[in-house]
């Protein structure tokens, strides 16, 4: 992917159709994976703070629980977060590389990269605070917020790439040298 940085006046909008299709299929797969993740999270937690707390801390003391859940062990937490940290970092890396190829200004790209990474770090850290810290309800809300923000940044980046691939360069009209001018 980095070979495109060396191509003078490279534009996602003017790339070969095979590249457009490949990137589009990757982004569709990413959206489907995010939908599956949200569906699974909704099934496990109801997307509520109470559900998130119950998921990590269990419900052994609740006589009205429909399904008995145990608190996540340190080993279960480590296994889950090992897998997700690796795969999500790869997803972020690929998506941010595609976003870097857009005509959006450099500062906007950097802000996008940092916000996406911070939301990822938050999603990885907050569940540990639910399980082993104090005030798990507060951290559960923060976890849901971080997940929502990660979803937003992922959809925003993917949307910007798709828009530039198939519609037009985001930067707008071409400048004097023929290249699209960045927004910021």
Structure description:
This protein is an all-alpha fold and 184 residues long. The protein has one domain (16-166). The chain is 67% helix and 0% strand. It is built from five helices and no strands. It has helices spanning 17-45, 49-57, 74-100, 106-132, 136-166. Helix 1 runs antiparallel to helix 5. It starts with 16 loop residues before the first helix and ends in an 18-residue tail after the last helix.
Radius of gyration: 20 Å
The CA-CA distance between the termini, in Å, is 23 Å
Based on helices, strands and strand pairing, what is the structural class?
A: mainly alpha
Overall residue-averaged pLDDT value: 86
Count of β-strands? 0
Q: Summarize the helix and strand pattern as letters.
A: HHHHH
Which ranges are low-confidence, i.e. pLDDT below 50, for 5 or more consecutive residues? 173-178, 180-184
Number of domain modules = 1
Major pleated sheet: none
Shape: elongated
Q: How many individual helices?
A: 5
Helix content, binned percent: 55-70%
Share of β-strand residues: under 5%
Secondary structure: elements and pairs:
Layout: H1 17-45, H2 49-57, H3 74-100, H4 106-132, H5 136-166
Helix pairs in contact: 1-5, 2-5, 3-4, 3-5, 4-5
Give the structure's gist in a few sentences.
It contains five helices and no strands. It has 184 residues and is mainly α. It has one domain.
């Amino acid at each position: 992917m980095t070979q495109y940085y060396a191509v003078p006046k490279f534009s996602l909008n003017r790339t070969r159709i095979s590249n457009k299709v490949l990137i589009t299929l990757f982004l569709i797969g990413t959206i489907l994976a995010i939908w599956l993740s949200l569906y699974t999270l909704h099934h496990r937690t109801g997307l509520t703070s109470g559900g998130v707390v119950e998921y990590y801390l269990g419900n052994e003391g609740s006589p009205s629980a429909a399904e008995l859940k145990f608190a996540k062990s340190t080993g279960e937490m480590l296994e889950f977060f090992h897998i997700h940290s690796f795969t999500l970092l790869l997803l972020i890396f690929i998506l941010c590389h595609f976003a870097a190829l857009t005509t959006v200004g450099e500062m906007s790209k950097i802000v996008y990269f940092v916000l996406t990474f911070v939301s990822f770090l938050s999603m990885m850290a907050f569940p540990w605070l639910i399980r082993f810290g104090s005030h798990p309800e507060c951290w559960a809300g923060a976890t849901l917020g971080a997940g929502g923000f990660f979803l937003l940044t992922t959809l925003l980046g993917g949307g910007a790439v798709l828009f530039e691939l198939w519609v037009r360069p985001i930067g707008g009209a071409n400048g004097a040298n023929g290249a699209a001018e960045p927004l910021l």
